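Table S2 (text version). Query chain:
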Amino acid sequence: MRDPMMNLSVSKLPMFIVGLLLLLSYTLIFMSSMIVLPMFLQTGAGLSVFITGLMIFLIIFTKKTIQQYTS
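Corresponding structure-token output:
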């Protein structure tokens, strides 16, 4: 290609690779926690679906509220 949309030479930089791996690991951990945590709360702790959903909602709401006031 004459004009690529993204310059792929940036992938040769070690800090780019480290940043990309950190972003990937953060995303995987966050997404898996949103799947595993409700399953644990329902089966392991014996909580109802409503209480589990309320707890997850409060976790996300608190995180977004803290981000709003700290950034």
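Notes on Table S2: The mean pLDDT is 89. Helices lie at 14-44, 49-70.
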